[in-house]
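Protein modeling request. Please complete all fields; requests missing the sequence field cannot be processed.
Requester role: graduate student
Desired output: 3D structure, token encoding
Chains: 1
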Amino acid sequence: MTAKDWKKSFKQVAHKKAESTRQLKFNKPVEKKYGRGRRVCSICGRRGALIRRYELNVCRQCFKDIANGIGFKKF
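Delivered output (75 residues):
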């Protein structure tokens, strides 16, 4: 369930106290504490293909756009 769907379902039961507490307890998205899903691109927010070397933290697509500007050359 995505965060968008979670908020929508919570909105539907917000007036019912017991139902809303149960919704919060079991269906609220949990923030990742470690692993690949926690790190995101600092430019666009993608989670896959992240370049972390030199503490860049950008995905490969954004890196391709900014590579010349930060001093990388294509060989």
